[in-house]
Amino acid sequence: MAIIDRNKLTRFRQDLGGNIAITFALASIPLFGTVGGAVDFHRAARDAAELQGVFDAASLAAARQHALGDAAVKAIAQNHLDGHLAGHLKAYPVRIETSNGGRTIRIMTDDATMPTAILGV
Fold first, then answer.
1. How many domains, in total, are found in the chain?
2. Model confidence over 82-111: pLDDT tens digits?
3. Residue 70 pLDDT
4. Phi, then psi, of 98 in degrees rounded to 5
5. Could you tell me which residues come within 8 angstroms of residue 119 by beta carbon, excluding any fewer than 6 positions away?
6. Which of the ends of the chain has fewer CB neighbours closer than 10 A, N or C?
7. For the ranges 22-31, 41-50, 104-113, which has the lowest average pLDDT?
8. Does 84 map to a domain?
9. Residue 84 belongs to domain spanning
10. How far apart are alpha carbons 97 and 64 in whole angstroms?
11. Confidence check: pLDDT of 55 > 90
12. C-alpha angle 59/60/66, rounded to 5°?
């Protein structure tokens, strides 16, 4: 067994040299979690805005052809969606509803979940 020198123990206890590193290490855990959450939230908001834009454009493109009837309007909207949705957005299930002779069009997704890259939630 080694004998502990009282002077070395006292100096070690009073030393303040590594406090910043320890404080930063402990504070970085919630900081990185917050930044990761912000990145994931931004991706989700960007995807939602992109989906909304494509849905709006498909609705307008199909509504212009309302004289063709409900089935044709649905096909036009589906073709527009197939051509304009980006790769990762094609995974979302899309539902198209028409009524009033193709004058009323609803394009929606019931489940727009996305995997979060950073938080993994």
1. 1
2. 998 888 788 788 889 988 887 888 998 877
3. 87
4. -125, 155
5. 33, 36, 37, 40
6. N
7. 104-113
8. yes
9. 45-112
10. 16
11. yes
12. 85
